[in-house]
Amino acid sequence: MRASAARPRFRRMPHDHDHYHDNELDPMAARAKALETILTQKGLIDPAAIDAIVETYETKIGPRNGAKVVAKAWSDPAYAERLKKDATAAIASLGFTGRQGEHMQAVFNIADTHNLLVCTLCSCYPWSVLGLPPVWYKSPPYRSKAVIDPRGVLAEFGVSLPAETKIRVWDSTAELRYLVVPMRPNGTEGWSEERLAELVTRDSMIGTGLALEPQAA
Amino acid sequence: MNGPHDLGGQMGFGPVAPEKDEPYFHAEWEKRALGVTLTSGAMGHWTIDESRHARECLHPADYYSSSYYEIWIKALETLLKRHGFVMDEEVAAGKALGSGTTPKRVLKAENVAAVLAKGGPCDRPVEAPARFEAGDRVRTKNFHPTGHTRLPRYARGKLGVVEAVHDGFVFPDSNAHGGGENPQRVYTVVFSAAEIWGEGADPTLTVSIDAWESYLEPA
After folding, report:
1. A188, A199 in Cβ contact below 8 A?
2. Are the C-beta atoms of residues A93 and A100 closer than 8 Å to each other?
3. E strands of chain A, at which residues?
4. CB A1: neighbour CB atoms within 10 A?
5. Which backbone phi and psi does B84 adopt, to 5 degrees?
6. Which of A21, A144, B186, B188 is the most buried (most CB within 10 A)?
7. At what angle do helices B48-56 and B28-41 cross, to 10 degrees?
8. Span A113-123, mean pLDDT?
């Protein structure tokens, strides 16, 4: 895998590949490794804890968590109501809690209003339901443009909303973390929560996408 | 501070360029960067506010030419040096050369699941009654502090409406600098795009921020 596609386009790379091996470290890889080595030698960190953290975010905490929340909200009006009133508790009731999800709020897309999440100041993101943020979410192009030209941003994601649709951008400047509940697609009446969850993409819960149409799932 | 991190409304960065089927990490070292940042933070010697401020204090040229994990590692070096865990000579040598600050705690692998599941709630009780209620018109302060703040430049001195009143939260502007938690209530404040961006603003757009009480004045 080449790194160039993932790097912000404005960035000049000192090195155009991202693999590393012990005797030829990328400068940043070397810097990260130096810190880990020093801290480990001093007994300040446990390298196995790093492995456990990485494993958690690679295999346990990701956007499938959020998709379950959304699918349940689509299927169960009482749950949707709880999610609206106290998202932290409603999400915790499905087992999703913790780091960067301590104070949750769910925002619901409706026919005339589309919600979009951003953190213009850093990279605040609802980890407990969406996992680690994608590179673009943390990078200057998105963070700069989402608050001033959200339709332009949406167009880059292939999303075109009717001209009269209201757009609400939520800049996560404090410790509240947001989850967009996209609109339930037509033609999904009677679907199980498991089947509905398949329609809920990560981007649809950030607001840079819509839920998939049934035929696309 | 009016740092490189405060990006809302800036221009010229090019397309967002979402990556299809993006992997969680783009290189092995990014995994270690995530883990070393979280395990170092778990020692308990600095707050999330101090770590955010360390990142936004990177020189703008450095900030804009760094990926986010690079920003994390560069800021982490600052924090570890500032708090006496690591010396410059050690970073240069890539190995420990002496002792340093004794950590309050060390995160062991067997405790990772519990620590991540618990998180770090930042809400705190506030005795004083809320100064504003939903529906109130407010104006954000126009200030340019040299320290940490979470009021973005694009939303300073702007007229908005309180949409929601939240609990008290740790005040980052003081907490980032060791000045204490000083919790204040937080409000979701909504602005029209015309108020923020003026001429040519998208008439269908509103933008909200979450603002600590001292960022706001009645309007």
Report:
1. yes
2. no
3. 104-108, 113-118, 166-171, 177-181
4. 11
5. 80, 20
6. B186
7. 130
8. 98
Which of A4, A122, A144, A192 is catalytic? The answer is A122
Positive or negative torsion for Cα B80, B85, B89, B95: negative
Shared domain for B83 and B52, answered yes or no, is: yes
Q: What is the pTM of this model?
A: 0.94
**Containing domain of residue B194, as a range?**
137-218
- Select from B14, B200, B2 the least CA-distant residue to A142: B14
Q: Which domains does chain A possess? A: 24-60 (no CATH), 62-216 (3.90.330.10)
B17, B120, B212 ranked by CB distance to A102: nearest: B120
What is the C-alpha separation between A132 and B69, in angstroms, rounded? 12
pLDDT in tens, B87-103: 999 999 999 999 999 99
The answer to whether residue B7 sits within a structural domain is no
Give every CB contact of residue A93 below 8 A, 6+ residues apart in sequence: A82
Q: Determine the residue of chain A that is closest to B73 in CA distance.
A: A32
**Do A206 and A124 form a contact (C-beta atoms < 8 A)?**
no
Lowest mean pLDDT among A85-89, A212-216, B204-208: A212-216
- Judge: B210–A176 Cβ closer than 8 Å, yes or no: yes
- ipTM value: 0.98
Question: E strands of chain B, at which residues?
Answer: 137-140, 159-169, 184-192, 205-212, 216-218
Q: Which of A112, A66, A75 is nearest to A188 (CA)?
A: A75
pLDDT score recorded for residue A216: 64
CA dist., res. B177 & res. A51, Å (int): 31
Q: Domain for residue B132, yes or no? A: no
* Alpha-carbon distance B216 to nearest alpha carbon in chain A (angstroms): 14
Residue A78 to residue A167: CA distance in whole angstroms: 26
Chain B residues in contact with A142 by the CB 8 A cut-off are 16
